[in-house]
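Protein 1 of 2
SEQ + STRUCT:
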Amino acid sequence: MTFVRTRLALDRMASGETLLVRLRGEEPRRNIPRTATEQGHAVLGEAEAADGIVLLLLRKG
């Protein structure tokens, strides 16, 4: 479900805009960067917060 929300957000954006996604859990952490890259978007950065949430910065391709 997290990727569906991410995909919808990316679809509404213009090419080159960035999106900060908060991820919780191991599956989204593995799958969202991979799938976003496969769809032509760029992963600009990834950082883990103290509470275990992963912050993922994407740029729409």
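Protein 2 of 2
SEQ + STRUCT:
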Amino acid sequence: MKVFGIAGWSGSGKTTLLEKLIPALTARGLKVSVIKHAHHGFDIDKPGKDSYRHREAGASEVMLACGTRWALMHECRDEPEPQLADLLTRLAPCDLVLVEGFKQEPVPKLEVHRPASGKPPLFAERDDIVAVASDEAIAATIPVLPLNDIAAVADFIVDHCQLKV
């Protein structure tokens, strides 16, 4: 599996880019998975549901399954936060894993940067950012891609990861 990150400040448009990028990549015949890092706690379960009650009772893992999907919830409790490498081992084989967040992990990344946000670019500080997608022309020593040109972003990722499409 190839791993490629999408990084940027909160509100920069990472999720929106991924939402458009995934169908562009799958249309090329690639099997794509995503790992997203959440800075704050989250819960995909609902209080009162059986699975929630199982976790609250102390189960370390609860798996939900139906005819269209399954989900595994693992409670960390006294364990440290999982690292990206550990999470990657839990995914089924695919061609490409897109990673949203995990800024500090040393995987090649595309930064989503919007100068109007007033936030400094990350690519100036990180050598694992191999390209930047922006809604404005910016000066950089790495490739700058138009944020709204999804085909160009997809082409860059396919080429950088040396994926066969």
